[in-house]
Amino acid sequence: MENGTKPWMTEEEASRDLAANEDYLRRMDYLTDEELREQLKATIRRETASLDEWAAAGEYFVLSDAGKVHLPTCPTIQRFMDRDVAWAPYLRHLERVRDWHGSDDNAPDMPRLKTREQIEALDRYATCPLCAPTLDHTDERRNPKGWMVLKAGSLKAKHFGRTFFLPSGEDLGGLSRLTRDETPAGLTFRAEFADGARHVTDPEAMLQYRTPVAGDAAAAPAPALPPWRR
Q1: Is residue 228 a contact partner of residue 144, using CB atoms and an 8 Å limit?
Q2: How many helices (H) and strands (E) does the chain have?
């Protein structure tokens, strides 16, 4: 299409860009099938280049229409992220592109890409349980069943004695000491586990601990890996 959606576009600008792209396709009614396919292939290249710009710029996420957040590598959204796959049915059946009066499906949607700051500024969202992106969150449903996930910097005295795990499944042991020192140079953080045998110094590090689940045995030991990491 004529205009490729840029990572820095606002939603209003992206909407205008989409309208321009639709007008562009409408003007292609006079093209032969082969000419139209070549135009669509050029569109695929531009959309792929736009996704590559996001990847080159650093961390980003994909927000579904249902408000669920995915990592760009999540297998559940690859049919949208791979623009060759997304456009394949349209290249095979060009009437889907040409039928502007009888269809609202004349082009595959581009993934809605967001930075971490944009996602965490939303009032509410849910994270995909399969790819499990780590984000500040307002929806407790993001935690896997039977687990509480939190940043190390969120640890408090009430967590002393709980057995914590890293997302990889590594058992850190029980939380035994918390140290936070704020100085002009910044924050020094240290969470000690298993009476100092292990420690975490990054307050942004993600940790998790087992929570009761209905039907679980009262004294059931925590598994080495949470279900969503197996």
Answers
A1: yes
A2: 6, 10
Q: What is the pLDDT of residue 3?
A: 41
Other Cβ atoms closer than 10 A to 57: 12
* Dihedral sign for Cα atoms in the order 91, 93, 98, 103: negative
- Where helices occur in 69-142 by DSSP H, the ranges are 78-81, 83-92, 95-98, 116-120
| Residues in the chain with pLDDT values less than 50 | 1-6, 138-142, 218-230
| Inter-residue contact 108 to 93 (CB < 8 Å) | no
Task: Give Cβ neighbours of residue 190 (< 8 Å, ≥ 6 apart).
Answer: 177, 178, 179, 199, 200, 201
CA distance 117 to 83: 26
Q: Which residues contact 147 (CB under 8 A, 6 or more apart)?
A: 208, 209, 210, 211, 226
